[in-house]
Structure formats: C-alpha cells, structure tokens
Amino acid sequence: MSEAALKAPGAAAASGDANRWKALVFIALAQLMVVLDATIVNIALPSAQTDLGISDGNRQWVVTAYALAFGGLLLFGGRIADLWGRKRAFVLGLAGFAAASALGGAATTGSMMFGARALQGVFGALLAPAALSLLAVMFTDAKERAKAFGIYGAIAGGGGAVGLILGGFLTEYLDWRWTFFVNVPFAVVAAAGAYFVIREPEGGRNRNPLDIPGVLLSTLGLVALVYGFTRAESDGWGDAVTVSMFVASVVLLVAFAVVESRVKAPLLPLRVVTDRNRGGIYLSLGLAIIGMFGLFLFLTYYLQVVKGYSPVKTGFAFLPMVAGMITGSTQIGTRLMTRVPARLLMGPGFLVAAIGMLLLTQLEIDSSYAALLLPAMVLLGLGMGTAFMPAMSLATQGVEPRDAGVASAMVNTSQQVGGAIGTALLNTIAASATTSYIKDHIAGAASRPQQQLVALQGQVHGYSTAIWFAVGILAVAALIAFTFVNAGRPGSVPMASGEGAEDELPVPVVAH
C-alpha cells in the first residue's frame, strides 16, 4: 500500500467505489427482509396452522426448521462468501431466499411449509454474512463506516418489531400467505440493485480449499445447540433428547475447535474469535440478544392476551422501541463512534437497555402503556441501538479481508444462538414462575372469574420474573463490553490492509 494511502485513509476510501452508498440501500433492504422474516411468520403461524392442518405438536417446526438451517450453516455461508466473492454470494442468497419464500406462500401441506422454511434458512445463512462483510470491505473510512453501520445496526435491531406490524396487517387484511410472498419483491429489487451497483473491491478472497471436517463439525454442533434450546422450551430441560443434544453440541464444537487449530485452511480461523475485542463483542452481543428476544416474546403475549390488543395494534405498540433503536444507532452511535472508544458506547448502551428492562419488572395486569411500557421501550431501544451500532462495526474491523465473511457470520451466529437461548431460557423461567404463582393463589379463588384473574396474574408474574433475569443478563453484557472491548476510537490508529491482500482497500486496525 502506498504511503499516501496510509496518510489519508479518507482519501483512499473516497477513491474507492463511488456507488457504495447506493449499494448500502440494497444491502440494507436485504437485511430488513431477513430480520422481518424472523417475526412476520410468527404472527401468521396460527392462521397457517389451521389452513394447512398442522398439528400442535408439529407447528414449532415452522420456526425450528428455519432456525436450525440458518444457525447451523452461518459459518459455512460466511466461508462461501469469502471463497466465491461476497457480491455473488449475496445475489445468490437473495435469489434462493425469494424462491423459498414463494414456495412457502404456495404451500399446500405442512411438510411443504417445513421444507420451504428450511430452504429460507439455508439461503439466509448465505445472504446474512455476505451482506455484513460487503459493508466491512466497502466502507473503510472511519466516518463513512460509522454512518453505514449506524443504518445497518438500526435495521438489525428494529426490523423485528416492524415485522410484527407488517405481519399483523398482512394476516388481518390479506392472507397469511402474503407474509411469505412479500419477501419476493424485496429480494428481486435488492438482487437487481446489488448486481448492477455493487462493485466489490478486488483481492481479499480466501481461495483456500474448503475445510470439510470443519464444515461438518460446526454445522452439526450448531444445529444440536439450537435444537437443544428449542426442544428445552417445549419438552423441558430434563428431557432425554434435550440433554443428549446439549452433550452432542459440546462434543462436536470442542472437536471443531481442535480441528480448526490444526488444519492449514480452517473454516473459522481462531485468530478471528481469539481477538480480545471481537471475542468480547460476540459474547456481549449474544447475551444482549437473549434479553431482547425474551422481551419481544413476553410483551407480545402481554399486549395480546392480557391487554387484548389486536396483532396490528400490538405491532404499533412496539414502534417507540423501533424509534429508539433508530435514534440510538443513527444519531447517538454514529455521531460518537469516531470520537469515543466503542466500550463507552456499548457498555452504557446495554446499561440503559437494562434500566428500560428494569421498569418492565413492575408489570401488572392494569399497567398503563403510556406510564410504564412506553418509557421502558424507548429506553430499551435507545440503549440497544447505541450499543449495536459500534458492535456491528468493530466485529468486522481489523479483520483480514479474506476473513471478512466468517467474521460477519460469527456476528450472526452469536445473535442466532442468543435468540434461541433467550426464547427457551426465559420462557421456561416465566412458565415455572406462572405455575408456582397459580398453585399458591388458586385456592383462594372461589368463582370462575376469580380463577381467570389468578391465571392472568400468574402470567404477568411469570413475565416480570423472567424479565428480572433479562436485566441481569444485560448487566453482564455491559460488564463484558467494559472489560473485554479495549479498542480505541476508529481512526485513532493508522490504517493497514490485511495480510496477503495488498490490492484490498485499507481496513482499520483494531488497537489492542
């Protein structure tokens, strides 16, 4: 790299792809589609179950088939992006996701639906790390990178709540099938735009042969882990299959780590995860997602079952959280990321979110939306948005260009595993607290209305108990961010390219 490029990183970035901001629009659109899909289908699930004749025992597979394929194949998808090129992997992922969505919308049987969801997961696992790694290699100037990741972080954080609104509208006023069909125009526009606009920087591909043992061990290990938590939610933590999945997951992932430390061209180079900053980010982000996913679940049930909100009204009730996330990510995070170290955004961000969560521990049947839920959701959104934005950026900063795909995949993996853990763990805590409350109070309820009131009070007690755990988890995430993430502010150190990628655009080096 030239001396001039080292002295003027902003100029180097500016001389890169002039279309990178247009490219960001299509990358953000694709990310929105993937995040929307995580919640939009949940709203449509009761209607789809009735139409397709899916049993109560099998309905979980509409969610689980996607989660297993997506979570299990993320590392493989990230490596494919590094091998084939991120633009090619991105466009192919979009095309496949659109086809799988169309198949899901046209499903006539439960098996056809499960297959379509699994295919969505497969192509989502190719698409998600390709999108994030494209940002990592296209935006290298510190200020531009802050803006780009601010937009991306806002979508990653708030898209799920938008999915609740869109899912409610489509299911209530059209048909549940449109929660699948809506992905097709998203994907077509994003793929066409990406094909014509994105110019991936030359160099930086990882052309080493695929690490097949690593692919098999990581995929099977992650599938076992995600399925173990999914199974725990429905069958309990002591279930024989649940326990065997966790044991198998530990064995497979330990074997994966051993293999990766010995092969010449590993699927996941250990240098990616053993870096102090990235390791801290993956861990704190995963913990934060545990708390956030649990909150989505409990508030959705609280608003619909306890308060009697419709799906559409429930979706709109989440809008203050979305607004908070967008503000935290694009205004607070973006403006401060180039001025202060990442830990001073991530740590306080998680703490502000924990304060918002702490307010929700006061939930009661007659709690006021304006007095309690509104300020809690605004604080949660602001905190998460402020923390997510530098986390997304720093997780791919300083990575050798050839590793950008797998580093991006690890961000998605920590989110996916965190979501699976959050849903299972917090739901189990809530269910246990609810059962205990009803058992202790039902004897004093003589009439049926009193019994129904005790049942509702038990539900709310279960939610608030689980939310206390979420507060603690967010506090731990903040502690990890303060302790492990010691990188200076972006742009405070010289820029350098990754090893073996002389033709790559300069990538910021993380200060250790």
TrEMBL record:
- BP GO terms, sorted: response to antibiotic
Task: Name the Pfam families for this protein.
Answer: MFS_1
> Which GO MF terms does the UniProt record name?
transmembrane transporter activity
Record carries keyword Transport: yes
Predominant place of localization: membrane
Q: How does it sit in the membrane?
A: Multi-pass membrane protein
Subcellular location per UniProt equals: Cell membrane
PANTHER family, per database record? BLR6921 PROTEIN (PTHR42718:SF46), MAJOR FACILITATOR SUPERFAMILY MULTIDRUG TRANSPORTER MFSC (PTHR42718)
What is the protein's given name?
MFS transporter
The scientific name of the source species is: Streptomyces argyrophylli
Traced from the root, the source organism's taxonomic lineage reads:
Bacteria, Bacillati, Actinomycetota, Actinomycetes, Kitasatosporales
